[in-house]
Amino acid sequence: MIEKTKCLPDGKHERKSQEVIHYLEADFLYYPTTDLRCPAGESCVIDGQYVKVGELIGTRKGAFFEQPIHSTVSGYVVGTEKKIHSSGQTVDCMIVQNDKKYVLHESCVPRTDEDIEQLSKEDYIKIIKDSGLSGLGGSGFPTYVKLQTKETIHTVVANGVECEPHLISDYKLILDKAKEIVEGLTLSMRALGATKGVIAVKAKYPELAGVLESQFAEFSKFDLEVKRVGNYYPAGWEVETIKSSTGISVPPGELTAKYGVVVFNVATLYGMYRAIRRNIPITERFFSISGDGIKESKNFRVRIGTPVRDLIEMCGGYTENDKPKAVIVGGPMMGNSLQNDDLIVTKTCTSLIVFDENVVEPEPCIHCASCVYSCPVNIQPVQIMNAYKERDKEAVEALGVNKCIECGLCSFTCPSKIHLTETMRQAKRFIRK
Amino acid sequence: MNYAKQTSPYIRKETSVKRMMVDVLIALLPVVVFAIYRFGWDAIIRILLSVVIMVVAEAIGMMMRVMVHPSVKGFKNRFKARFEKLTINNVTAPLVSAIIFAMIIPSTLNLYVVAVGAFFGIVVAKLFFGGLGSNIFNPAAIGRVFIGLSFASQFKYAGIDAAVGATPLGAVKDAMLNIPTVLQDYKLIDLFLGNIPGSMGEISAILILVGAAYLFIRKAADFRVTLSMVLSFSVIIFIAAIAQGSKNLVETTLFHVLGGGLLFGAVFMITDPVTSPYTRPGRWIYGLMVGVIAAFIRLFGAYPEGVAFAIIISNMFVALLDYYKWSTNKYSWKFIIGYVVSLAALGLVAFIGMGGLN
Fold this sequence. Notes:
Chain A is an alpha/beta fold. In chain A, the strands form 4 sheets. In chain A, strands 1-14-13-17-15-16 form a 6-stranded mixed beta sheet, covered by helices on one side. In chain A, strands 2-8-7-4 form a 4-stranded antiparallel beta sheet, with no helix packed on it. In chain A, β7 and β8 form a beta hairpin. The two termini of chain A are 35 Å apart. Chain B is mostly helical. Chain B has 16 helices and no strands. The termini of chain B are far apart. Chains A and B meet through β15, β16, α11, α13 and α14 of A and α1 of B.
């Protein structure tokens, strides 16, 4: 309808109450040696070598950074195989055969309070770099690069909004690891020299605010606050989160550090706690499987590297009808659809959603402008579509297609079911040529 | 198992063009029922005639646009292939246009004139431009203006005293000053309830407002165009009444807002999204244009009534408002000041034109 669409059917309710299955039985775990950001990679172990939890087994190499790969189980390295990465790419993976003993590597020695007091900014950056921590909200951007900023940072925002429908991994993580997240936040504030820490959670989940606030007593030295932000989409988009939790508006496309704010996902902060306090890289994450194309939806806590096919089997497999299935990694608004379910749980995977294919035939545009009203970056998807159809490069560019964050709201809201988001992607490719 | 080739987003809102069209039909219902109550069979026949012509013409027109693969042989098969391409919106959209068209003509209009208007509106204003979503003019307004110009002598309204004029507005036309005397014939409350002569759907302000409330609550129409149009229209008429030295400023303004096709046009005609601009400021400006042009036609034009003209003239500017170099969905100070200044300047024109300086 002709209005600003903000609320999505959220599909989290039933998932929230479901228990979480802690799955440690995977026989083989797979570690991609390349990904989208890092086109090259190498391993530093040989076949048959015994590795332990938290042991360095390889490095992914990107354009301006390197990312170490750690084993998340103990066992023998048994070679490599091609598997699907959450981006949909086929990547080479190292395989570790799980001996299910979960022996911790010797390097993983917790730091005491005194040790942490003495850490300098460079030490923090080095620890985080060695832990291979990256943005676990989905971006996969290396965290140490954010810590390296030269700007003065006054506020660190912990993003626990998770505004996409169906996803509950941050929700479960906050309930489970509130103390660790708050400590991670204080550590990141120390590393950046920030004075204020804000945790943004959705207003409709008072339980999250409660469990986080109850931890603040222990960290009374720090100026911490839980901000309950709106229930709309895309409330979890960096720019919106900063706006609603601190009141600072950052123009889309600019670095938040320039405005004195750095945003970390709550899962990243948990990783920071582990890296600095306990000296262990991230080894586990929450992963949920849902959708009408799967027999039973379930929540899991799995080791990173677990093959998703094991989990699909535990959910009873796909529903048996002859409809094609859309297999989506991530949320239903922005996730990637796969053409092969031979997927590996990586650090940034949040969920697998399987939908029966729902073919929608687009009708002619009736100029209702719902897409224009709903766009969070204030561009005009319908005008971009018209200009793209005319192959008018100048107009496509002038209408600001590059501001598009591909949140999916324009397609979602369109009464004619026109696939505007896909057209925006095509228009972006078109003007790059 | 097969993998679906889809891209994000994978979920869609529970909404459709069909729902929007049906909402407009529901909003039109009180007006249509009242027209049938007031004019009986005259109304029913004219509504049905325009519905049949518009729906059939749209179906034929859309089927002619379909390219059938050469391998499909035989008239029957080719017809079937074309027919299958029609969607529910090829019925609902012309249905809306047809009912709106029937509501803005008088109940006594000759049937062949109704038929010509409906045909011209749907074929020339809509199908020639490419059907649903591609027309730049409002089909009902084009149909109405076409017959209004071609068959001017056919327009007679039932229950009009020849001495008073064509419609209450026709009477006011010559004597803006004498509204109190006209009001003795037609009280404001009559205008409000629809107890006056006039076009079939335009006479009852209250039922139009009921339809408007439904449309805006259901978000099937944008309130901005309607509000902007009524607001700018009222401002111009108010200023004109001041210029005339009228003693009943509010009554005069209300009389003009409630009389004639203004409210019907503001609620059902300019809210047609297809012929509206894409952005919020654009829609405010569009409403301003329609409101001011409608007021100017009433004040200075040769016709007593000009909402359909105003809509058609403003439709021509929609593409200009949407030009990518300046269209934006954000309200800026430039827009707000521009809006107020243009309204004030046009008000000044009305003031001078109505002899306010004498």
